[in-house]
Amino acid sequence: MSSAILSSFQSYAPAKTDLLSVAWGLVALLTIYITHWLYRWRNPKTKGVLPPGSMGLPFIGETIQLIMPSASIDLPPFIKSRLKRYGPIFRTNVAGRPVIISADSEFNYYILRHDERLVESWSLDTFAKLFDQNDQSWRKYVRNLALNHFGVEALKERLIPRMEDTIRETLAAWSSQESMEVKSAAITLTIDFAGRQLFSGDLEKAPLKLSDMYNVLLQGLMSFPLNIPGTAHHKCLKIHREVRLMMGDVLKKRRMSPPSSSHGTDRQEDLLDHLIRDLNKESFLNEDFIVQQLFGLLYVSSDSISITLALAFKLLAEHPSVLEELTAEHEEILKNRENLDSPLTWNEYKSMTFTLQVINEVLRLASFAPGLFRRALQDIPINGYTIPKGWVIVIATAALHLNSNQFDDPLEFNPRRWKDIESSVVSKSFMPFGLGLKQCPGAEYSRVFLAIFLHVLVTKYRWALVKGGKIVRAPIIRFPHGFHYKISERIN
Ligand code: HEM
Predict the structure, then answer these.
(1) Residue 309 domain-assigned?
(2) Domain Death: where (predicted)?
(3) In this structure, what CATH number is given to the domain that contains residue 320?
(4) Which residues define the annotated binding site for heme?
(5) Are 384 and 49 within 8 A, CB to CB?
(6) Domain, as residue range, for 178
């Protein structure tokens, strides 16, 4: 018995030693692999030298630092501290993607002038899902479509009087309320107005109000892309599906019953008619594409204008001397009219010099997006470094707009600075609407909308903060408690 035990023990002992050495071997291999992987994470393989920076933690990179909110209109500390430490071009990693952030105005200008040759558009995940940015072949078509329906000719021919009427009605309604949260109220205004240009109010009788849906959607669009029930991102994707279904219905109904029979023959062609007319002309045009464009155009025409409007409320209320000069400009326009009640004209809009400087200044301070997003199509050399092919490049427009080398006292709201600013600063360091091939086709529409809004606002109303007013960058500008104002008719 005891010899049997001994022999089994003897045969067991070497097996245990073998297993242990195998285990140690595996641990050693794993350690080498992880160390190598960590080294590669921190020092990605490239043909040249990477711009300085840090790739942060495995998998998440520096995402947490990037989205950490900062309670100021200034650049978020993430960007500010890295610009100080590494200079105007640095590398980082966001949500597992290697990224270059550039606040170098010459480099930014250069790559935007070589868009689609050196770089291509790139979108955050949420945007990519919403706009199918991978396929760029339709971009030119959409650009022309937007210019056709929102460009200078459309503004001169029909949009200016429509905008003025809508804004007058809206401000009258706002002034009858105890207080208004101007950011979300401005989303409703801009969605309702643009919606009418897109599909002539076909959705006005829909069970769910489109502007309410966009209000929810816009809150979730910039959230962390975690698609599980309860998250803002999940809600955003759900509303996105519902909005698209509603738009798909409108499209189907319009195709079945074209405008001449359903709306009468005097109705002007809207953007939806235009898309339907082109259905058989362009190979990429189909029902899905049309819904996608209606959705995307409503989004771009509302979010940025409503942020700018809300910020203008706050900045003008806090700077009475600017408000005074602005009011004087608009009273002068009224004084020069033969008929005080005649509608605002294109020439009057063009004469609003100070108003346009106020709008520039609000856009500069707002700098709501952290930048323009591109992806390198090839290795790009810059100042002895190499940006590897495939890396995301963020053209940090906010860092240009808030740079003290270009704009004295950059956090100060000072529209008068635009009176004698150098043209080179404007072309290379001020690009709220982008630059080059993909420059925003809605830029003039936005300026006109904001100018008319300010015209009606300062000539007829005054406003006072009721609550909120806090600004946060995370890194996109947010108004966490809203901007609640009491708007009242002017007494004098
Ligand atoms: C304050 C208002 C607005 C701001 C600050 C703004 C900003 C921008 C910027 C920075 C870009 C360029 C993006 C890039 O280069 O990657 C852009 C593109 C675009 N914007 Fe706007 N936008 C505004 C309003 C509008 C409006 C009202 C419309 C529609 C009527 C519009 C339609 C578009 C379209 C279609 C593009 C894509 C252009 C292309 O890829 O060729 N935007 N916008």
Answers:
(1) yes
(2) 137-187
(3) 1.10.630.10
(4) 440
(5) yes
(6) 137-367+402-489
